Amino acid sequence: MKEERKALKPLDVVSGFLVRPGFYEVYGATALEGAVNFTVHSQGASSCELLLYHRKEEEPYAVLRFPDHYKIGQVYSMIVFGLDIEEFEYAYRLDGPWDPKKGLLFDRKHVLLDPYARAVTGQSVWGESQRKDGLYHARVVKNNFDWGDAPDPFYEMSDLIIYELHVRGFTKHASSGTEHPGTFAGLKEKIPYLKELGITAVELMPIFEFDETMGKREVDGRQLLDYWGYNTVSFFAPNTSYTAAEEYNREGRELKELIRELHLAGIEVILDVVFNHTAEGNEHGPFISFKGFDNQVYYMLTPDGYYYNFSGCGNTLNCNHPVVQEMIVECLRYWVSEYRVDGFRFDLASILGRSEDGSPMSNPPLLKRLAFDPLLGNTKLIAEAWDAGGLYQVGSFPSWKRWAEWNGKYRDTLRSFLKGEYWLAPEAASRITGSHDLYAENKSGYSGYNSSVNFLTCHDGFTLRDLYSYNEKHNEANGWNNTDGANDNRSWNCGAEGETDDPEVNRLRLRLMKNACAVLMCSRGTPMFLAGDEFGNTQYGNNNAYCQDNEISWLDWGLLEKNQELFRFFRFLIAFRKRHPAVTRELPAAMCGFPQISIHKEHAWDGNLTADTKAFGVLYAGYDGRTGRDDLVFLAVNPWWEEVWLELPALPKDDAWEICVCTGEGEAGEIYPEGKSCAGQDKICLKPRSVAVLEGCLKRQN
Fold it and tell me: What is the CATH number of the domain that holds 550?
C-alpha cells in the first residue's frame, strides 16, 4: 500500500487550487466528490483558461490556465478540487490565431460559454439581459433527479396526436388561471386540460437556452422580443427564464417534473430543436461560444471566411463536420437519458444533410448516425424537410425507416382544397390517405404513412381561426411594414376580413374549422395541430408572430368557454380517431371484403377522381381483433359551394352506416355520439362546404 501511494503523482497547484489531469472523454463540467472535472476541446487554440466567478459577479475571482501537459490531442481536461458547485459559475478564454479569412477568430479578450454547459446564467429573468455585453456563464449541475417508477409512454407514430405549443405563450395570458404563468410549472398545471382534450404528445417550441432580448426593439409603444426562441445559446441547457423559480444548480428540476407528470398522464414530449444555426449570427454577431472555440469548425464558411446562410439567420451550423456531429449526437442522447424526452422535431432539417461546402449530400452521415444510434432507438425523429437556402426535401429526405417529416404538401393541398378549390380532389385524396406517392415503403427508405406528419397549422403561419378569417397577412405590428412572413397562405376570410359580427360569416368560419379538424383526424399519418386551434385562438392575422410576446401570441383561454362547441368537436374527433384503428394503420383484411382504403365519388366504388370532382369519400376498412369486428370508417368531404349526394358503399344485409359527424347539419354542425343511423339510405347529402364522418354498424360479426 505504501508503494502504491508513492507511485501516485502529487497534485499540481494552479492559481492556488489543487488540480490534476481530468477525464478527457467527458466533455463539459462534471461534479465529482469534492471536485469538478472540466473538459473542453479546440482544434485551433494555443491555450485555454478556466474562469471562476462568484454567483452573479462579472469579474472572475480565479483564472486557471490549463497546464500544457493537461492537453491530449486537442482536448483540455482538468479536475479542480475544493469547489462547491452551489457557489460558483464558470466560463473559458482561449488564445490562438486571428485570421478571419481562414475562419480563425481566437481572441483571449472573449469570455466564452462552455459548448457543453448543462445550465446557463445571465438570462434568468424573461426579457431582461442581466449581464452587460450579453456574456453568459455556466453552472455545474448534478443529474440526480428521482424519476420514480413512472413508465415512459411509447406510442407508434400512427397513434400520436401531436399538439404544438409555446411554453410561455400557453399560460402567460391572465385568462390561463395558472399560479405560475408562462413557465414549465404553468404548463404542468394544464395537464388535466391536455388529458381532457385527448392529445398523446406535446411538441414544445424551443426550450434550449436562448436570448429573447436579441433584436429587442420597440414598435408603436410595444416591446418586441425574440419570443419563439429559434436562436440557440446553449444546446444542453434548458431555458432558465421558463422556470417559475430562479433555479440554481437544480438540474433542470422544473422541466423534469413537467416531463414526469406528462408521462404519468400518458403524454409524450417532443422537443423542437434548432441545429441549423446559433445565436452568434454572422460576422457582426456576438461571440458567445462556438466562434471563440472553433469558428472554422462549427460554422459553414465561404472560401473568404464569411458565413453561409442557409438558415436565413446569419450563420449555418456545420452539422456534418465530425466534431459537430459528435456534439449533436451527445446533445440528443443527453436529453433522452437525463430528461426522458421522447422525440425531436428538427427545425430546417435539410441543413443537417448539407456537406461542409453547403451542397446537399445523398447519404448524410449525421442523419444516418441519428437513425441508428442505440440510445435514440425509440426516439421519434421528425424533420422539417426544407431550409431557407431553397432545399425542399418533402418526400425525399434521407430516412432509413426512422425519420418522419412535416408533410408540407399535405398542408398546402388541404388548405387549398378545403377552402373551395375542389379541382384539387385527386391530390387531396392522396394526402388524406397517407401520401403514398411521397412515403411508399420502397421509396427512399420511408416507412409508409408513418413518415407523414399531417398538419394544417403550426407556429409558423396562420392559426386555424385566422386561416378562415383573413385573406392577407397582417404583420404590421412586427415593424417591417408587413413585408415579413409568408404570402402563400391559402386562406379565405369567408367574406369579411378579420373579426366580424356577421352571423353568416361566423357560422361558415366555424364550419370550415370543423371541416379541417375532421379531415385531419381522419387522415392516414400522424396528425398535428397548433395549441389553441381547438377553441378558436387568433393572432389577429399575424402569420409571423416570432417577436410578439403579448396578447397576439399568448393563448386567450377565455375563448375556450366562448367556443365550447369547437372544443367539443375537437375532443370528439380525437377520441373517434383513437377508437378506429382502420384510420390509423393497416389492419388484417376486413371480413366483409372491403379493401383497406378505397375512394368513392357520387357513385360508390367509382374512385376515378378528376379536376371536375366536386366531392368524394374515403373508406377505411379492416378487421379489428380487439372487438372481433370489421372497423369501417367513411369520410365524406364536400368543399364545393353547393350540396352533393354521395352514394354509400353497401354494407352486408341488416348492417347500416351511422353518421358520427356532419358539419352541414344544424346551424353550426352536429356531433352524434351514439351515431345517427342511415338504415334504409343508400346515399348521404353533403351540404355546401361540409364534411361527414360515418362508421359501419355491423350487427352480425363476432
Answer: 3.20.20.80
Residue 5: the pLDDT is: 45
Residues 559 and 590 placed together within one structural domain of the fold: no
> How far is residue 325's CA from residue 303's CA, in Å, rounded to a whole number?
22
Q: 384 catalytic, yes or no?
A: yes
Catalytic annotation present for 674: no
Pairing of strands 380-383, 343-346: parallel
Query: Tens of pLDDT along 146-188?
Result: 998 878 899 999 999 999 999 999 999 999 999 999 999 999 9
Q: Which of 251, 268, 272, 347 is flagged as catalytic?
A: 347
Query: How many Å is the Cα radius of gyration of the chain?
Result: 28
The Cα–Cα gap between 82 and 92 comes to 19
**Helix H or strand E encompassing 196:** helix 191-197
201 part of a folded domain: no
Distances (CA, A) of 385 to 144, 165, 370, 394: 36, 20, 16, 5
SS3 604: coil
CA distance linking residue 439 with residue 451, whole number of Å: 6
Mean pLDDT over each residue of the chain, to the nearest integer: 94
Q: Which of 139, 164, 180 is the last residue of a domain?
A: 139
Residue 643, all three cell numbers: 350540396
Active-site choice (211, 384, 427, 630): 384
Locate 576 and state its grid cell. Answer: 373517434
How far, rounded to the nearest angstrom, does the alpha carbon of residue 117 sit from its chain's CA centroid?
22
- The whole domain housing 80 covers 11-139
